[in-house]
């Protein structure tokens, strides 16, 4: 992969090859499980989960016990190609801990559960402690996989992700049951993955993140990030002098960036929106948007492939490539629009619900007022249809009707 990146850069200097960060972090989880002690223990956990899920009697008993204890968590079976599935397996086992221990005592489970499995499920000092340890080690990695695989622009978070993972692993690994050599091996693997993933564009994106401005970067990394911005300006044929001047003012908070209103919404606003909306008049904004919108994972492409597989199926295999591509484009972007507007729809529903509640709380006199308006309309119709000789009689009758309704209105108000 790295050799392919080098060849691409040599031939096309304006292309910046980037690897999938979610896949890289998934490989880091696999590096942890490749350690002898962690891999052996995880195989034991998978064996227990597999035995329970594949045995009808045990699965039925466990579901009955969980329903009695109001536990709605189901056991998750890990998959090698699914990101974070091993953590989901460990967490599902921990959430159903009491139910599994009750299952080991159940009379109908004696013939199916082996003695070793019962001993492990009842072992509070070793088995469940190690389950929690490995879960805690994997949790920061999987949480960052979830963040980076979203459809948002997250390239400015990549450097922070590796820094947080490294700090947490340094704190958690000594507390685990892994040997010293395994701990050092995991940290070496982490540094190797980080070196292959982090590039100068990530330093530049971290510098252009207004919430941090790259304050946790080293001096060398800051210089590399600024050098990348300069080289990108040259490739974009932008005004290099004004861009570098804006970069200096941005870092020192002068000129436009010296105004307080610019920095008020930094913590709650996406950096791309911040640069486009508040700093769109500057020469640096186009370069910043170009850098901050670079993809960090291939998950969006994988999602589009999944959508395409539903559209161009065995039953619809006569679709042309262009027609299938257009339908995929519409379907995929329709899902994104629905997800984006879901929060706005919830707010609208809340407003509609509050409006309905307010209408239902109106006093009963409003219904009588509607009757008054209806009688007035009937009164006008009678006037138009009646002769001039009968106007006085019709008028008196209508007035009597209106007076009668108004008296009802007063009665309801008194009530």
Please outline the helices and strands.
Layout: H1 2-11, H2 21-33, H3 36-54, H4 56-68, H5 85-95, H6 97-105, H7 115-121, H8 127-148, H9 158-172, H10 180-197, H11 200-207, H12 219-236, H13 240-252, H14 271-277, H15 283-292, H16 299-311, H17 321-360, H18 365-385, H19 391-414
What does it look like?
This protein is an all-alpha fold and 415 residues long. It folds into four domains: 166 residues, no CATH class; 90 residues, no CATH class; 62 residues, no CATH class; 48 residues. The protein is built from 19 helices and no strands. The longest helix is centred in the last third of the chain and has 40 residues. The protein starts with a helix and ends with a helix. The C terminus is likely disordered.
Question: Top keywords for this entry?
Answer:
70% helix, disordered C terminus, 4 domains, 415 residues, mainly alpha, 19 helices
Averaged pLDDT: 81
- Indicate the overall shape: globular
Q: How many distinct helices?
A: 19
**Total DSSP E strands:** 0
Can you tell me the number of structural domains? 4
Question: Percent range for helical residues?
Answer: over 70%
**Biggest beta sheet attributes:** none
The helix/strand order is HHHHHHHHHHHHHHHHHHH
